[in-house]
Amino acid sequence: MSAEPSAAGSHDDRGGRRRLSVTALRVAAVGFVVALLGLLIWDLVGTRRGASFVTKIDRGKSPPAPAFELPVLWDRRANWPSALRPRLEDGRVSLAELRGFPVVINFWASWCIPCREEAAVFRAVATRYAGRVAFVGMDTQDLKSAARGFLRRYKVNYVSVRDGSDRTYSAYGLTGVPETYFVDREGRAVSHAVGAISRRDLERSVRALVENPQ
C-alpha cells in the first residue's frame, strides 16, 4: 500500500507555489518598471531632438525635416502638384515621397480654437498655389471622427494625415497647436510659425518656398 502524502509535505508544496507566484509577480513588476523607464527615456530623447530641430530652424540652419509616413485622413489631392497625386493611392503619405516640391506642414487638432481661425487662410492660400505646393495637414492628439468633422466643416481643400502616436509631434518639437513648417524641395525646414498664422505671413513664407530654386 502506498503511503499518503503527509500534511507537512502538502504545506511545503503550497509554500513553494506561493514563493514561485511572488517571484513571478516581482519579475513582472520589474519588467513593467524597466519598460516604463524605457518609454520615458525615449520620450525625453525625442523631445530634446525636437527642440534641437526647432532651434536650428530659428538659427537659419535649415535642418532636414524629420521623416514621417502616416495614414491619410482626408484625401483632397486636387490642389497638389499633379506628379504627387498618384502617391496617395496606397492611403499613406511619407515626407520622402514629396521630395522635389515645396511642402507646407500644418499641425492642428479639431479642439484647437486657433486652428479654426486659420482654416480659411490655409484654404485660400492652398488654392492660390494649387499645383505648385503640397499642403499637408497633420492632425494630432485628436479623435478621428472629430478630426473629419473639422475638415468637412471648414472645407479643407488639401491632404491631411493623422499622427496617432505623437511621434511626429515630438520629432518636430511642437509645444502646442497650431504650428506650421515650411519645407523646401530638398526636404529642409527653412522656417516655421508658432500659433495661428496670418494670410500675409503664410503667403510670404509660401512665396519664398516657390521662388527658391533649390
**Cα gyration radius (Å):** 25 Å
Strand content: 15-25%
Q: Low-confidence segments, ≥5 residues, pLDDT <50?
A: 33-46
Distance between the termini: 94 Å
Second rung of CATH, namely the architecture of the domain at 69-211: 3-Layer(aba) Sandwich
* Number of strand segments: 7
Structural class computed from helices and strand pairing: alpha/beta
CATH class category name of the domain at 69-211: Alpha Beta
Reported by name, the CATH topology of the domain at 69-211 is Glutaredoxin
| Fraction in helix | 40-55%
Q: How many H/I helical runs? A: 5
Rough shape? elongated
Explain what you see:
The protein has 214 residues and is α/β, with parallel strands linked by helices. It contains 5 helices and 7 strands, in the order H-E-E-E-H-E-H-E-H-E-E-H. Strand 3 (103-108), helix 2 (113-128) and strand 4 (134-140) form a beta-alpha-beta unit. Mean pLDDT is 87; it is low at 33-46.
